């Protein structure tokens, strides 16, 4: 073989190897007459918008995404402006104290979103379960209680009322509901029933209703508080049944939704009860065994985990407020819910921030939660 042909053969082989390494979507041209190879164009992977958003955030902004707070007032006042501009909170929850009528509530939602000016929308939540747990009932006619819906025996009713709630909340700018209740049994009409299979079927029907309206929802209160004998707003309560009973009953509605639905379209709220068979020392909302080993590991949930209100007596009366958010994150939670007092919100936020600064929580762990939150929020864009 002549030297010239040997050179040409050599460059042909190199061009084949380059094309193979770059993949089919890349174009490499070879000028065989001149014996030169040049890359005409190389298609680079498109940047992930969530990764881009994470890179653009300060640590303080990331921690803000991991909190949802309540406030007082019916308009965009100095208090909520301060909360959003100082702490960059990623979500708010409305109560009756924030709601006067449809027009006012919608304006409040819009004004808050506009003022926050975040790349991904704020989560704006409401507890709209139906029955006695419904906000703004003077102008937002509530659905029947879940107990009433369950007694009907018609799962399509759960789908209907979920779609109704989605439309109701959307009309006032709320974009996520803290419902449906997935607990098996309750003393206060909030559960679809006392039979685990029945509850699972009705929760499934409700989930389908929310998803048909492209509306975010929240299963609560993991891993099930139907057995509670004490109001968690006041004090802690322990569930003393064995793991086998919890598996056969309390876990069933949660497992059904997790296994059959896109977990970026709903959150799971973790309650404050203790479960002796899972973790005899820590409330579920502070338990690595419950949130990481059971919910994420065993059940495979990779969506957003939010705590019940950290100002409830069951939790704040037993753990220092400054460590509550830290313990929640280390246990596997993503969003700390602090519903009422500014001072509590500041203490929880500062506790998380200081824990990261001293290395107790890694920034990669913060990124893990923020990535889940932004993935959820993509459905609002």
Provide a descriptive summary of the structure in words:
There is one protein chain. This protein is of the alpha/beta class. It contains 15 helices and twelve strands. A five-stranded parallel β-sheet has the order 6-5-4-3-12. The chain has a three-stranded parallel β-sheet with strand order 7-9-11. It has a two-stranded antiparallel sheet with strand order 1-2. It is globular, with a radius of gyration of 25 Å.
CATH C-level class of the largest domain is Alpha Beta
Strand order of the largest sheet: 6-5-4-3-12
Q: What do the pLDDT scores average to?
A: 89
Uncertain ranges = 1-40
Under the CATH scheme, the architecture of the largest domain is Alpha-Beta Barrel
Span from first to last CA?
Answer: 63 Å
Beta-strand percentage? 5-15%
Number of helices: 15
**SSE arrangement, N to C:** HEEHHEHEHEHHEHEEHHEEHEHHEHH
How many domains, in number, for the residues?
Answer: 2
User: Helix share of residues?
Assistant: 40-55%
Shape: globular
State the total count of DSSP E strands.
12
Secondary structural class: alpha/beta
Q: Kindly report the CATH topology of the largest domain.
A: TIM Barrel
């Amino acid at each position: 073989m002549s030297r010239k042909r040997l050179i040409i053969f050599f460059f042909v082989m190199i061009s084949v190897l380059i094309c193979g390494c770059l993949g089919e979507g890349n174009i490499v041209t070879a000028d065989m007459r001149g014996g030169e190879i040049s890359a005409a164009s190389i298609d680079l992977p498109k940047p992930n918008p969530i990764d881009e958003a994470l890179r653009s955030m300060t640590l303080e902004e990331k921690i803000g995404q991991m909190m949802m707070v309540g406030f007082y007032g019916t308009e965009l006042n100095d208090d909520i402006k301060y909360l959003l501009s100082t702490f960059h909170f990623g979500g708010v929850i409305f109560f009756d104290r924030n709601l006067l009528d449809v027009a006012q509530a919608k304006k409040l939602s819009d004004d808050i979103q506009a003022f926050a000016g975040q790349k991904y929308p704020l989560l704006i939540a409401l507890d709209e379960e139906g029955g006695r747990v419904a906000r703004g009932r003077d102008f937002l006619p509530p659905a029947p209680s879940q107990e009433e819906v369950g007694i009907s025996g018609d799962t399509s009713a759960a789908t209907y009322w979920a779609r109704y709630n989605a439309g109701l909340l959307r009309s006032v700018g709320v974009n996520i509901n803290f419902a449906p209740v997935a607990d098996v049994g309750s003393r206060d009409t909030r559960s679809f029933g006392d039979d685990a299979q029945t509850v699972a079927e009705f929760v499934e029907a409700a989930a389908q209703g929310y998803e048909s309206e492209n509306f975010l929802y929240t299963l609560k209160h993991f891993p099930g508080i139907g057995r509670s004998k004490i109001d968690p707003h006041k004090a802690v309560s322990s569930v003393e049944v064995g793991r086998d009973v919890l598996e056969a009953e309390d876990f069933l509605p949660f497992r059904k939704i997790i296994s059959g639905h896109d977990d970026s379209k709903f959150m799971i709220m973790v309650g404050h009860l203790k479960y002796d068979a899972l973790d005899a020392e820590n409330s579920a909302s502070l338990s690595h065994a419950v949130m990481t080993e059971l919910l994420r590991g065993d059940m495979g949930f990779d969506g957003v985990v939010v705590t019940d209100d950290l100002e409830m007596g069951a939790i704040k009366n037993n753990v220092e407020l400054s460590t509550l958010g830290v313990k929640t994150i280390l246990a596997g939670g993503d969003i700390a819910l602090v519903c009422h007092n500014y001072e509590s919100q500041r203490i929880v936020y500062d506790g998380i921030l200081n824990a990261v600064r001293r290395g107790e929580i890694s920034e990669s762990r913060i990124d893990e939660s923020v990535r889940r939150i932004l993935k959820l929020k993509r459905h609002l864009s």
